[in-house]
Amino acid sequence: MKEKTNTRQQPIIVKYTQSSRNGIQVSPLHRHAIGYIVQGKRYLYHGDSRIEIGKGSVYYLGTGNHYIEDVPDPGKPFEQIVFFYDAFQINRILNQLSINYQMEIENDHDCANCHNRNEVGYPAWNALKQFFTSVNHYLADDVFGRDEVAENIKMTELAYLLLSNSECCLKRCMLNNID
Questions:
Q1: Of 6 and 139, the one with more pLDDT
Q2: Which ranges constitute the DSSP H helices of the chain?
Q3: Left (φ > 0), alpha (ψ -120 to 50) or beta: where does 23 sit?
Q4: Residue pair 142/136 in contact by the 8 Å Cβ criterion
Q5: By the 8 A CB rule, do 178 and 36 touch?
Q6: What pTM value is reported for the model?
């Protein structure tokens, strides 16, 4: 089966809800993903290690195959919000932040948790949690389905929040996949 080419120039923002546990699944990604766990927890498997991403945490998945397991809380569904983007889109957003807003963008974060990793988790801080709460409202009102500019604005805001936190492992991952 031939893969459909995405001609959109914006990131894609979606919310996934899953009511039952399906075990470990292979998730092939053709775009990078930054996600936020609204409810439940996600396990990312890499070799012999397992990374737990709990409620209120963010994660990064690079392109390629990932082994994941989504676990709903008892009596509640697993919920996550995910931003999908490619290198061209993040380059455009980072250029905009740098040129239009004079933001200094440095790939200065380095820690053992994210060095040479294609999947990373990190606890969200208050501003990031509020950001995803607003995205959740946009998704509930189907704003992104009617307005692609809103997706681009929200991805730019997400990039800004991640870049402004020098301790966030997602910053390094996001900057490592640009030209």
A1: 139
A2: 87-101, 126-140, 143-146, 148-163, 169-176
A3: left
A4: no
A5: no
A6: 0.90
